[in-house]
Structures are given as C-alpha cells and as structure tokens.
Amino acid sequence: MSPLARALPIALLAVLALPSIAVADNAQLERGRYLVQISGCNDCHTSGYLMAPEKVAERDWLKGDNLRWYGPWGTTYPSNLRLVMPKLSESQWLALARQANFRPPMPNLTLHRMTDEDLRAIYQLVKHLGPAGEPAPMALPPGDMPEGPVVMFPMPPKNR
Ligand code: HEC
C-alpha cells in the first residue's frame, strides 16, 4: 500500500470524528449550565442571581460575590470561581472537589457527591466562560463584624 493509501482512511476518520467531538463538547457545556443553575453554585457565587436569576447574563455567572456570610466561623465571601478554577487542570479540579473542606456556607458535600462527569462539566463551563471579575474579599476571623450587606447565622447555643 502506498503511504497515501494508508493515510487516507486515517484522515477520513479524523474528519468524521470532528463533528461528534464538537457535539460532545456542547452537550458537556449544556450539562455544566444545568448544574450550576440547579445545584446552587450560581445562587451564592453569582452576584444578584438568587434574587433575580433571569436578570444575570451568563457571562456574569460565578464571578463571586461581596455579600458577607457571617457566623461562628467568621465571615466568608463566595469565591470568584472564574478566577480560581481556570488556574487548575481538570484533574486538579477533581482532586480539589473530592477533598473540598471550605468554610460555611459552602456546601462541600455537594462537590463530594457529584460524579466525575458532572464535576468535569462544571469545570469546562467555567473555562469556557473564561477568567473575569475581581477576587472575592478576604475572609475575616470570627468576631470581626463586617460592614455592609450580611447574612448572619446565630452562634450555636452553648448548653447543647
Ligand atoms: C450557600 C452558598 C454557596 C453555594 C450554594 C455554593 N458555594 Fe462555593 N463557596 C461559598 C463560600 C462562602 C465560599 C468561601 C468559603 C471559604 O472562604 O472558606 C465558597 C468556596 C468555594 C470554592 C473554593 C474556591 C477557592 O477560593 O479556593 C469552590 C471551588 C466552590 N465554592 C465551588 C462551588 C460550586 C462548584 C458550587 C455549586 C455546586 C458551589 N460552590 C456552591 C458559598 C457557596
């Protein structure tokens, strides 16, 4: 067989495979969109989303929020995932999600329980949206009372 005759079927296969790869990617992005809307990521990590989800354009998703979450753990701010996640490789993201142990109200268990496929879909969506926005403010230690809009959790009762 001539080299050309040998290369042809491979080239043909590559061309045939291309559209199916593109379709798979779109399905994965759709899955990512679905997940960040139903599993709460947007509710906390997207400014204004919880109150008016339809008003926030997708390009503004997951850029973090400066709404303060205050409780016995101190004050935390939902991170800007558009800056945090693209710095990781996909496998680093999977490892981080599996070991997630962030402060409240981050639902770590949601990440622990997600399938690899779902975690990958979220990762690919965030990468597709690209880096944007500012890093969330630094967390504050317990007892520091921040100014501005805040969600407050009471101290747990002492005698329980
Ligand atoms: C109820 C609010 C809430 C929801 C829902 C939520 N998060 Fe978070 N998340 C937070 C807060 C607050 C932090 C910061 C925690 C800290 O500072 O320790 C955080 C931190 C994180 C971090 C750590 C980022 C870093 O700074 O290193 C990741 C990753 C993350 N969230 C991903 C997600 C994903 C993915 C979802 C959806 C499945 C989600 N979060 C849903 C509130 C939330």
Order of helices and strands: HHEEHHHHE
- Ends apart, CA distance between termini: 81 Å
Question: Averaged pLDDT, please?
Answer: 89
How much of the residues is beta strand, in percent?
Answer: 5-15%
- The rough form would be described as elongated
Estimated helix fraction: 40-55%
Ligand list: heme C
Low-confidence stretches: none
- Helix and strand content put the structural class at mainly alpha
What's the alpha carbon Rg, rounded to whole Å? 21 Å
Largest sheet: 3 strands, mixed
Helices, by number, come to: 6
DSSP summary, beta strand count: 3
Strand order of the largest sheet: 2-1-3
- Structural domains: how many: 1
Topology:
Layout: H1 3-38, H2 41-45, E1 68-71, E2 74-76, H3 81-84, H4 90-98, H5 108-113, H6 116-129, E3 150-152
Parallel strand pairs: 1-3
Antiparallel strand pairs: 1-2
The structure holds heme C.
Produce a short descriptive summary.
By secondary structure, the protein is mainly α. The protein is 46% helix and 6% strand.
Task: Please characterize this protein's 3D structure.
This protein has 160 residues and is mostly helical. It has one domain (10-152). Helix content is 46%, strand content 6%. The protein contains six helices and three strands; from the N terminus they run ααββααααβ. The protein has helices at 3-38, 41-45, 81-84, 90-98, 108-113, 116-129, and strands at 68-71, 74-76, 150-152. The protein has a three-stranded mixed sheet with strand order 2-1-3, with no helix packed on it. A hairpin with a 2-residue loop joins β1 (68-71) and β2. α1 crosses α6 and α4 (90-98) packs across α6. The longest helix has 36 residues, at 3-38. The radius of gyration is 21 Å and the shape is elongated. The structure holds heme C. The site of heme C has 20 residues, from α2 and α3. Residues 39-41, 43-45, 69, 76, 78-79, 81, 84, 102-103, 105-107, 110, 122, 139 line the site of heme C (HEC).
